[in-house]
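Good morning C.,

I know you're traveling, so I'll keep this short. The sequence:
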Amino acid sequence: MYLASAREHPPAVAVRQQQRDVSLAMQFVRDLSQRQLELFIMVATFLARYQPGELQPIIDDDVKEAASALAATYETASRGLIYDHRPASLPAERLVTQLKPLLLEAEKNGGTAFERDTAVVLRRVAESVGETRALDADNRRAFLELLGRVMRPQPGDTGPDAGEPEPSRLIIPG
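The tokens, ready to paste straight into the viewer:
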């Protein structure tokens, strides 16, 4: 009975944290187009569920570095040049390697503006890391933890292991 009550009526601290998280997430997606919003949610969902190999944890700086390198690659491609920008750290490089196939799959339905939209989204991810870290400078995983709270799967959802895409948990007011 107490457990059910706790689920139905979470403590005020948890409610305030959820409100702060959603407010911050809404700032991240401000003024994005519909396609950019969908790309942002796709990338954020990937990051929230990303499982690096054992003893290879990632921190917010790795996410920022990976997003910046990929953004530079897409910006260069949108100008007609093919150049693969690479992050300096090994964890960021691994993250880029895992994120590329997801973006390539999304590009199949993206049309000609996909490269520009993807660059905008990846730059926004990098900015979002900076904004989150500014609020919690001592936490090297503040952005990743925020995504984990906002994009967490709900009971009964089918995950990527089941072969079906998992719906986003980010709530966008319409």
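Safe travels,
E.
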